[in-house]
Amino acid sequence: MSLNVSALRDAFPILHQEANGKPLVYLDNAATTQKPRAVIDAIRDYYQGTNSNVHRGAHYLSDRATADFEAARDTVAAFLNADREEIIWTKGTTEGINLVAQCIGRERLKAGDEVLITTLEHHANIVPWQQACLATGASLKVVPLREDGGVDTEAFHRLLNERTRIVALSHVSNSLGSVTPVAELIAAARAVGAITLVDGAQAVSHFPVDVRALDCDFYAFSGHKLFGPTGIGALYGRRELLEAMPPYQTGGEMIEVVTFEKSTWNQLPYKFEPGTPNIAGVVGLGAAIRWLQGQDRDALAHHEQALLSAAHEQAEAFPGLKIIGNAATKVGVLSFLLDGAHPADVGVLLDKQGVAVRTGHHCCMPLMDSLGIPGTVRASFSIYNTLDEVDVLFQALHKIRSFL
Ligand code: PMP
């Protein structure tokens, strides 16, 4: 199960450069991952050889673009263990959650109903539900965290009740890396008749996801956090629910028949895909997933865990460093604070040494409020990071500490 990280890094051209005169150490993978050559080539090849509008069936190029576009849908469906009609192209996780909140949230919620989320949600899995609650008179309930930054599952079971209509959970926290045991929570949610949505933005690049095994109703993710392009993502929806839902946006492509009096909707998944889609993005995302599936995913996961353990070990030994979020099950993220230093300052000083991290609230203001901190420094790891880079991060932090 050993991984040739150097060969893997060669697949990512962007990594081989300097930042501020130092070798680039890219530890901002939770914000976005880098793209392998296979993805860059697929997008270039699409524009150089295939570019055309899809589903018009008018000519050779359009047929080829359509075939590539729909093949990518098959790739995503297989990746999540779904049917192709259940995969809707979106701009990303944010749009997927908004689609569900608007199309089913507002339809199903009424005054007295409850939507259950957790304290560690990204704003993308808070604000759409807050708006749906405002529009319908339902209320938003929030599951607290344990001390270690994992979701308090006992509190979840206490808060879940027959008024809970929707349960929306992050699979993995972008701020802390904690993995939520979503399968167990989904089973409980389904037992009270609630609809379930999983925000998979931070999960899909770290471990395989099977929506049938999870038994969730919706699963949203973004291409750019999965080695694919920005501006493209996918939403899995359980077929019966998608069939019953009204469209999200209307216009061309999503219709069956239009008259000035009324319109009828296209079959799934096209009912939810109005207008010309991000074809190059879809092709790039398909290429990213095919590339990932060509790797030994167990070896990748093993390598990522080795990076995280090494980072934790050094963090625990670092004077004045406080790890934020130390759940037993976590992936990809080391969030921390340095005594006496604002996270933003630490980020700037790391950048000067070539180390890219993210600082601040990471789009999780309520989580930071609950922890009583303004934000964290977040180093987030991916498959192409090395143990040497973990060392560089801590050498840089030692330097920072010496002149703070
Ligand atoms: N949820 C989580 C857990 C995320 O990490 C992110 C991206 N930071 C999002 C949702 C939103 O994803 P996007 O910006 O790609 O729509």
From TrEMBL:
Belongs to the class-V pyridoxal-phosphate-dependent aminotransferase family. Csd subfamily. Keywords: Pyridoxal phosphate, Transferase. Its cofactor is pyridoxal 5'-phosphate. InterPro entries: Aminotrans_V_dom, Aminotrans_V_PyrdxlP_BS, Cys_dSase_SufS, Cysteine_dSase, PyrdxlP-dep_Trfase, PyrdxlP-dep_Trfase_major, PyrdxlP-dep_Trfase_small. Gene3D superfamilies: Aspartate Aminotransferase, domain 1 (3.90.1150.10), Type I PLP-dependent aspartate aminotransferase-like (Major domain) (3.40.640.10). One of its GO terms (biological process) is cysteine metabolic process. It catalyses: (sulfur carrier)-H + L-cysteine = (sulfur carrier)-SH + L-alanine. Its EC number is 2.8.1.7. CDD domains: SufS_like. It holds the Pfam family Aminotran_5. One of its GO terms (molecular function) is pyridoxal phosphate binding. Catalyzes the removal of elemental sulfur and selenium atoms from L-cysteine, L-cystine, L-selenocysteine, and L-selenocystine to produce L-alanine. Residues 25-393 form the Aminotransferase class V domain. This is Cysteine desulfurase. It comes from the Bacteria.
